[in-house]
Amino acid sequence: MPELAEVDFFRRQWDPGLGQKIIEVHLHRRKRVFRGSNPQMIVQRLTGGRFVRSYARGKQMLFAFSGHNWIGIHLGMTGELRTEPATFRPAKHDHFVLRQSRRALVFSDARLFGRVRYHKGKNLPDWWLASGPELLSDQFDQRFLEVFLDRHARAPIKAVILMQNGFAGVGNWMADEILWRSKINPAQLAGKLRAKERREILDQTKFVAREAMRTLAKDFSDPPEDWLIHQKWKANGICPRHGIKLSHAIVGGRSTVWCSRCQK
DNA sequence: ACCCCTGTTCGGCG
DNA sequence: CCGCCGAACAGGGG
User: Fold this and answer.
1) For position A254, what pLDDT does the model report?
2) Which end of chain A has fewer CB atoms within 10 angstroms, the N or the C?
3) Cβ-contact A97, A106 below 8 angstroms
4) Nucleic strand C near CB of residue A152 (< 7 Å)
5) pLDDT, tens only, A210-235
6) Which bases of strand B have any atom within 7 Å of the beta carbon of a protein residue?
7) Residue A147: CB less than 7 A from any atom in strand C
8) A56, A108, A175, A183, A202 from A205: Cα distances, Å
9) Which nucleotide lies at the shortest CA–C1' distance from A190?
10) A147 CB contacts (<8 Å, ≥6 apart)?
């Protein structure tokens, strides 16, 4: 579920716990979400520390704790963060719980595609820096885009827009929304795109990211009515521009929707 | 019962 | 070696 703006929404769900001490860490040690990390060490290092700050970058979140301890969380397909009362008892899918005196900070994930990582040190973890520049920053510009599109010239543009080292935070619905607004067919090879189309991709990516941050990230409210996202999952979804029936196919390995009239 | 899925990684293959 | 593609991961919902 979570892409750029939803990820930031979930990150902020733990805000009430900022500055507060962690009195107990509860986790299911054997769960897949801890792959690559040592769950026992997470418990050891976080217990008694303080939750001091959080960051989001693309689909990644980073939580800073006192003593140079860091927790990275990726929500995968079905992960979510929330807070619960102090008396909360974890249920089946609540894999990681930071208990504070007044509340519990909870990560849950039914499908276990999400991930919790641990990092110790004064500097940011390497994997944090591996994702692309933030879409709304000046580093995500025309020059960056050109190089990235050319590097993946033989892949369909839909697949390229889903690559996190280029389009950090873009997931399936954002990708379709961007391509629809740019009037580009999702199956078009990235290397075939003309100068005007490349400019459109930059502009529409910024637009979709900015608007999503204004709505979804703030309170999980819907983007405007005339966005493609509202039609995408309907059996008989129509193009918001002129009302003809949308096309569906698997492109770049992902379910894709587009308008055959405006996206040639 | 069967098929679908807003994500990532890995092995196969061209 | 580079890079694309399909499968695998796992569970819930239609």
Assistant:
1) 94
2) C
3) yes
4) yes
5) 999 998 888 888 888 899 999 988 87
6) 4-8
7) no
8) 18, 30, 8, 13, 5
9) C4
10) none
Q: How far is CA A71 from the centre of its chain?
A: 16
What amino acid is encoded at A87 in this protein?
T
In this complex, which residue's CA is closest to the C1' atom of nucleotide B9? A113
| pTM across the whole model | 0.95
Output residues with Cβ under 7 Å from nucleic strand B. Answer: A 1-3, 6, 59, 74, 76-77, 113, 162, 164, 171-173, 233, 253-255
A110 beta carbon < 7 A from strand C? yes
Angle, helices A142-151 vs A195-219, to 10°: value is: 110
pLDDT above 80 (res A1): no
Tell me the two tokens of residue A194: 């003309």
Burial-class residue A229 by CB neighbours within 10 Å (0-12, 13-18, 19+). Answer: buried
How would you label A125-139 residue by residue, b for 16+ Cβ within 10 Å and e otherwise?
A: beebeebbbbbeeee
